[in-house]
Each structure stands twice: as structure tokens, then as C-alpha cells.
Design goal:
mainly alpha; globular; 14 helices; homotrimer; two-stranded antiparallel ribbon
């Protein structure tokens, strides 16, 4: 337990862990204080996500590059996956889809933009491996296209009905997971040199002992699941009270919360002039949402959801995801970055956030 | 005749030529066996397309680079042109448009993706002339944009009517053919060095004597036209019987059949680590569909079609063509390729094929 | 006055200045001859725009790089801003929006394409600073995306209403102007070396004395405003008489007229093998329309317009702006250009012009 306690003492973020028991207490005592529960659960998830991140890196560092990379890749989005599963079980599909779209957009615009800006404020011009960045951006673009085809086609063509969208979503989910598997093979087995500095455990933390890391992984995942329950239950009413729509909450809040730990790594990498890390985390994490988390949710919804979920997103989400991945492709194409590039990405993100904030709520 | 017979004996593909007389016989004897006629005609067209390809290359090799390149470029899509003209004469405009869209998408995603995959399974990383590839991808993108403007505008704007679409289609066709002519001037006259290794007759076959080649060209074209008649007549009923829509047949089947000979050259080039050839064939062939075949069909429809044909595609075709050419531009931008890039392109193609397979039939 | 008179004598363009008094006379004498007034006002604005351009460069040359660059950047689109403000005051919002969209499209396709073609007819291959071009193209793309979000979202989502679009347009305008300010800081203060040869006063004209330049700036701006009044009043009836819609007039005519002076610089740069200048002017000018002129018009409309103006464009304008900036990004990505690239850009422009010419008029 010692390394854990030492870490918690050192890293101020972990002081937020106090909110974990607080939110459970509040849930019992003040069951109807939705806004309060919402805020407390958000504050509780952030440090839990960071703990998960450390634990994952520790396990990855011990198991060697291959399995370690796989772990880092798959568990990197564990927080988002757990929150989304909880919302799925509660049948809140708008929240689930908003979280998926939001995670993709937040990673490619906010995480990447803030990294480029933070790094650019310190270094006049920063360079990064553009071959690696191009490959990841293409991968992300293609994954996003795959995710958007059902929406684009049924929106554009009135002949497509709900049955079509459902069948297509299942078929696509299978295809996407196959592509994810082949992508793992590609980045960990056949061409690891192209992804060398992107996803390793160089976060600068001393890895924990294996036993502690595994126990933390298991225990914290359970805690995240429990806190997510409270979060998902309260989000509807809290959003109304705070003047936000569930779509906005999913798109902005869940994405920022779920990606908080990864953002810390990306920003830190940018400040150390290691943009490869930041770009790799941002683009890689977004690809996983599209290639792994979304398909898994669709397939799992046949088991644990009230009704099956499909991959049909509402039109503004489609537009935003498409623009976000195209922007990321354009911007990372050159291999060079300055502070203003970060500003531009953040500006597009601000525009999306403003648009979502002002949009009236939708049904289904 | 000797070189022809020697070739036929050597190349197993030409054993399929037996289906040519078979399909004519079947048409006479079993006029209503639509599914059978459909399958037989597909099997008959493939070797005919390959013969056309060899004959074209032989003529091109003899007439020198300029005219030869022109011939290769224009006659490269002869099979698709003949099939489309036959469908045009029969008034089957859905099939025609599906074939056009399908040829563009099949070349940029399937032909290119399979080439990159086949080459990538043999070579760790492959490089190709990225300046040439970029130019061709830009050309293709602009040609596709031109082709899609009538659909995008009338879809988006209710003020646009059928008369508008028709006039615009004619104007665009003229513009596109002018651009095609200028493109010939560009790639064959003023800047041939940029396209050097892409479209020459290095297919590895000994050219036939000129007389034989010309005779083969003429004769096989007639055969292709006759077989196409059978194909087009049977496609409607056969598609229903096999559970496919005419849109799917045009998009996938016709495109694959029509491009079969070119695919053989592209795949062979990739396996010999000459990706310039593969990329050039894939992108160049797709550009010709947009810049030459489609406009010619529109203009010719005023003469031989029941009613004039316009360039308005249904929305999912618009989306797919746009995504396909954008993907090709992104992917060929870097000048480097690995097996996984091919996988991604094939995955997007699989998604399109799956989508088209599941879409219910459309009217007009 | 001497340098002014010398200049006017030398440059044939300034002979068109005779139309300035002519149009005023015509307005008084022949108030209802709308078509005549329309043509005369167009002919009068062109030399006035050129005078404004010279005066701006003279002031910029005297005030040093920082303020000079700022002046060049902001006043480069002064003509378009004045025409648009006049139309705004008259409540002709279709004309205003068509002018904005048209300026973006005309700069990225026509100005850039004609420059590349003119240069390419003289030089076999031309190279330009692709890092600078990429940055400007990304900036332009992101600015255009920002400008298009209200339209894309409200078009795609029926829940968005007019109030939403209005609030969002105001918020976006503020964001865009902030981005414009940061962009000035970026290109003039922190990273001027990336934009070095793009926007300086190397137009080859001897700068005028400061007093003369400032007086010319003030005086000519007033003249442009007065001629614009006549132009805006006559455009509606003249367009009908000449068979054009106000959308076409705004998109094509106003954009070409307003950008005439800049085009002269861009073309001249291309002919001298200084494509950096041409690309910088084309992309930079288009960015300013999106980041400065459009937002200013929205905010000013709350003061001088009959009703507030929003940033919602009709669908075909959205499609065209998006395609134009994407095309510019693709084409300038490689840093090399030949005559045919210019042809392609001009072809897309011709397609847009043809489409707009054939489209029936719209309401609001």
C-alpha cells in the first residue's frame, strides 16, 4: 500500500479521492439532490480515472512491450467504457452516443489543441514524427467514416429504415472490432517502430508492484462503476437544473472527465517537447473509441440493454465528428506545430461546445 | 493468330473464354433463366476484358508513347463504357449511375487497398512517388467534386428542379471532357515525367503484331457489347432472385468485372514492389470514369437513350464517392504504405458493400 | 498630387476612373436606368479598389512591418467590406451573404487557380513555401468551418430555430474576431518568418508620401461608399434584366470586383515565379473574409441593419465554401505547382459559376 499512499500524498489530484466516500454518503442521505450528486460524482471520477491510469501503466511496464501496449491501448479508455456501459444499462442512449461522439471530438480537438498550445507557449516551433501522425490520423479518419456511414446513409436516403440501421450497425461493429484487432497486430507486432514513442509507460511514475497494480485496477474499476451509477441517475435532472442538455453533458462533460488522466500525460509530453506522445495519445485514444468502445457497446447492448443500440448518430454529431477528424488529419499532416495551431483547434472545439450549449434538447 | 492462341493456352484466365459461346447458346435456348444468364455473362466478360487489355497495350506499345498513352488511358475503361452504354440504351439509368459510382469507389478503395495489402504482405514498407500520387489524387478529387455538384446542390436546395439539373449536367459534361483533354495534354505532352512509370505497357506481355491487336480490339469489343446485352437484360430479375438490388449489382459487380483486367496489373505491380504502377492505375482509372466515361454517357444519352440522362446521383452514392476520393487522397499523401493501410481501405469498401447489400431497392 | 497623377497616367487601369464622375452623373440624370447604373458602378469600383490598394501599401511601407502588415491585412478587403456594409444597411442580406461566400470561393479557386495557371504557362514547375501554405490553408479551413457551423447544424437538425441561430452567430462572431486578433499576433509578432514573403509591400510601386496616401485612403473610401450605394440600389433590377440572380451577382460579380486589385498582385507574383506571394494573398485574403469581415458585419448589423444578420448560409453556399477550402488545402499541400493544377481550380470555379447561373432565384 505504501507506494499508493506515497503517490496520493504527492499528487494533489488524488486529494479529490475524498469525494468518493462523500458521493456515496450523499447518495444515501440526499437521494434527490440531483445537481449536488452530479457535481460530486464528476469530482469523484477524476481521481479514480487517474488511479486507473497509473495502475494500467504499472501492469504494462511489468508485462513487456507487446501485452503492455495492448493493455495500455485497451484500458486507456476504461473510464469512458464504464460510464457508457452504465448509461447503456439505464437505457440512456442519447447520453451514450453523445459520450462516444464527444470522446472522439474532445480527443482530436481539445486534447490535441491544448497540447499544441501548451507546448507552443514554451517552444517556438515543435516537430513530431509526421509519418506516425499521418498513419494514426488516417486510421482515425477511416474509423470515424465507418462509424458514420449508417447515419449518413439513413439521413440521406429515406428508403433506409430502422431494421436496416440495426442490421448494419451490428455488421459494422463486427468489422470495426476486427479492424481493431488487426490494428493491435499492426502497432504491436509487425510495425511497432512506427508507434515507438507514442504509447509507452514513460509517464514518469515509478511503477507499482504487480499485485498492488492489479488489485487497484480491479477495485477502482468497481468504484468507477458505482460512482457512474450515481452520475447517470442524476444527469438528467441535474442537466436541466444547470441549463445543459444531456447531449451537451455527454459530449463535453463525460468526455473531459473520462479523458482527464490521458490529458495530463498528453500535456506533460507537450511541455517536455515530446509531441509524439501527445499526438499519439490524442489520435490513438480517439481511434479506440471508434474502433473498440463503440462496437463493444453495440454488441453488448443486445445482452444488457433494454433494447439493442445502433450506430445512428444525430446529424450535428455526424458533422462534428467528421470535421474533428478531418481537422486533426490536416493539422498533423505537416509534422510541425506552433502555438497558434493549438489555438485554432481549441477554437473549433469552443464553437462546438457553444453550439451544443445553445441547442435545445432533443428527443431520443 | 499464333501469339493469341499461345497466350490463351498459357493464361488460365482465358479458359473462361469458353463461357462466351456458352452464354450465347444459353440465351437462345433458355431465354428466361435470368440468374443463369447473369452468372454466365459475368463469367464471359472477365476474359474478354483481359483480351481487350492486352490488345490495347500491344497497340500502345507500337504507336509510341504519346498516342500509346492516350490509347491506354481512353480504352482502359472500355469494358465499363460498353456495359454502361448497353444499360443506357435499355433505359436502366439506376444501373448506369450505380456502375459509374461503383467504378470510382472500387478503383480508389478496393483496387488500391488490395494492391497495398498484397504488396504489404510481401514488403515491410513500400514507397512510391508521392508527388505523382498527390497530383493524381487531387485530379481525382476535383473530378469527383465536379461530378457531385448537381446532386449536392439539388439535394440541398429545393429551388433546383429537374430542368436545372439537366442543363447543368450537360454543361458539366462538356467542361469535364475539356478537362479530360487538357489532362491528356498534361500527362502525355507537357509533363510526362510526373507520370512516367504509371501507365506504360510494362505489363510483362510480349506485344502482339499490330494487325492482330487491332482485329482483336474490334472483334472483342463487339463480343463485349453482345454479352453486355444479355447481362443488362438479365440483371433485374437475377438480382432479385439472388437477393441483391440493381444498385448493388452496378456498384459492386459491374465495377469488379469491368475493372478485373486492370486489377491484375495493379496487384502484380504491388507484388513486384512497383507501387507507382498500382497507385497510378487505381487513381488514373477512377479519374477517367469521372472525367470521360460519365460525361460521354450524358451526352450520348441525348442520341441513343430513351430520355436524356443527368448527373444526379442518389445521396448515399454521393457520400460514398466523396469519402472514397478523400480517403484515397489522405492515404496516398505520404508516399509510404504498409499492409495495414490496405486493410483500412478494404474495410471502408467492405462497409460500403455491406451498406449497399442491406439497403432496400430504390425507385429511379 | 504629382505621384498620384503620374501613376494614373502610367497605369491604364486608372483610366477607368473616368467612370466615377460618369456614374454619379448617370445616377442623377437617369435614375431608373438600372442596368446602365449597375455596369457603370462596377466599372467605377475597379480603379477605386486599385487606388485603395496602392494607398494602403504606401502607408504600410512607411509605418514599418508590424503596423504595416496589420494595415495590409485589415484593409486588403476594404472594398468588399464597404460594398457589404452598404448592402447590409439596405437590408439586402442575400447579397451580403452571397458576397461573403463568393469572396472566399473566388479567392481560393479563381485567384489561386489563375495565378497557378498564369505562372505555370511560363514556368515548367513552380515551387513555393509549403509550410507557410499549409499553415494558411489550415487557418482558412478552420475559419470556414467556424463560419459554416450554424448553417450545418440548423440544416441538419430541425430542433434548432431562428433564436438559436442568432445567438450562435453572435457568439461565433466574437470568437472569430478573437481568433483574427490572435492570428495577427501570430503572423506579425511571434512567427513572422513563416509568412515572410507573403504580404509585404513588394508590389513594385514607389510608395507615395504619407500625407497623400492617407488622404487618398480617406477620400477613396468615401467614393467607394458612394458608388456602392448606386451599385446596391441597382443590382436587383439589373440582375433580372441581365438574367442573373442576386446570389450570382454577389457570389461572382462582387467578389471579382472587390478582389480585382489583389488579383493583380497575385498574378504578377506568379509570373515572376514568386508563388509564395500569390498563395499568401489568395489564402490570406480568404481567411480574413471568414475571420474578420463576416463577424464584423454580423455585429455591426445590430447597429446599422434593419434587423440583425446571422451567419446562416443557404445549403449550396455551404457546400461550395467547404469544397473550395478543402480543395485549396489539398492543392497547396505539396508545395509544387504546374499549369494543370491551375486549370483544375478554375474548372471547379467554372462549375460553381455555371451552377449559380442556372439556379433559379431564392427568397431570403
Amino acid at each position: 500500500m505504501n507506494p499508493l499512499l506515497t503517490e496520493i500524498q504527492h499528487n494533489k489530484l488524488f486529494w479529490l479521492l475524498v469525494f468518493v466516500p462523500v458521493v456515496f454518503a450523499a447518495e444515501t442521505l440526499q437521494h434527490d439532490a440531483h445537481t449536488l450528486l452530479f457535481i460530486l460524482s464528476v469530482l469523484a471520477i477524476v481521481p479514480l480515472a487517474a488511479l486507473l491510469s497509473h495502475a494500467t501503466e504499472s501492469v504494462a511496464a511489468k508485462t513487456g512491450d507487446a501485452v503492455g501496449g495492448l493493455l495500455n491501448a485497451t484500458l486507456g479508455n476504461l473510464t469512458e467504457l464504464v460510464i457508457a456501459l452504465t448509461a447503456l444499462r439505464a437505457g440512456q442512449y442519447v447520453l451514450v452516443k453523445a459520450s462516444l461522439a464527444g470522446a472522439i471530438v474532445t480527443n482530436t480537438l481539445f486534447m490535441l489543441g491544448a497540447s499544441l498550445l501548451l507546448g507552443g507557449l514554451k517552444y517556438h516551433v515543435q516537430e513530431y514524427n509526421r509519418i506516425s501522425a499521418r498513419m494514426q490520423a488516417s486510421l482515425l479518419f477511416l474509423a470515424t467514416v465507418a462509424l458514420l456511414i449508417p447515419s449518413a446513409v439513413s439521413q440521406a436516403d429515406s428508403v433506409a429504415g430502422a431494421a436496416f440501421t440495426q442490421k448494419l450497425s451490428v455488421g459494422l461493429s463486427v468489422l470495426l472490432i476486427v479492424a481493431y484487432g488487426l490494428g493491435m497486430l499492426y502497432s504491436l507486432k509487425t510495425h511497432p517502430e512506427l508507434f515507438a514513442s507514442a504509447e509507452s509507460g514513460e509517464a514518469g511514475h515509478t511503477p507499482w508492484p504487480m499485485g498492488l497494480a492489479l488489485a487497484t485496477l480491479a477495485g477502482v474499476t468497481v468504484l468507477v462503476a458505482l460512482v457512474s451509477e450515481i452520475f447517470v441517475e442524476s444527469v438528467q435532472k441535474a442537466a436541466e437544473a444547470l441549463g445543459m442538455t444531456p447531449a451537451f453533458v455527454g459530449f463535453i462533460v463525460v468526455a473531459l472527465v473520462g479523458g482527464a488522466a490521458e490529458m495530463a500525460s498528453a500535456f506533460s509530453g507537450a511541455r517536455k517537447n515530446r509531441l509524439d506522445l501527445s499526438v499519439g495519445i490524442a489520435l490513438g485514444s480517439a481511434s479506440q473509441i471508434a474502433l473498440f468502445v463503440a462496437p463493444v457497446l453495440v454488441l453488448v447492448s443486445y445482452v444488457i440493454g433494454p433494447t439493442p443500440m445502433d450506430l445512428q448518430f444525430w446529424p450535428s454529431a455526424v458533422v462534428m465528428m467528421f470535421i474533428a477528424t478531418m481537422t486533426a488529419s490536416m493539422v498533423t499532416n505537416g509534422g510541425r506545430s506552433t502555438w497558434f495551431v493549438g489555438v485554432l483547434l481549441l477554437m473549433v472545439y469552443a464553437i462546438f461546445a457553444m453550439t451544443l450549449y445553445l441547442l435545445p434538447p432533443r428527443v431520443a
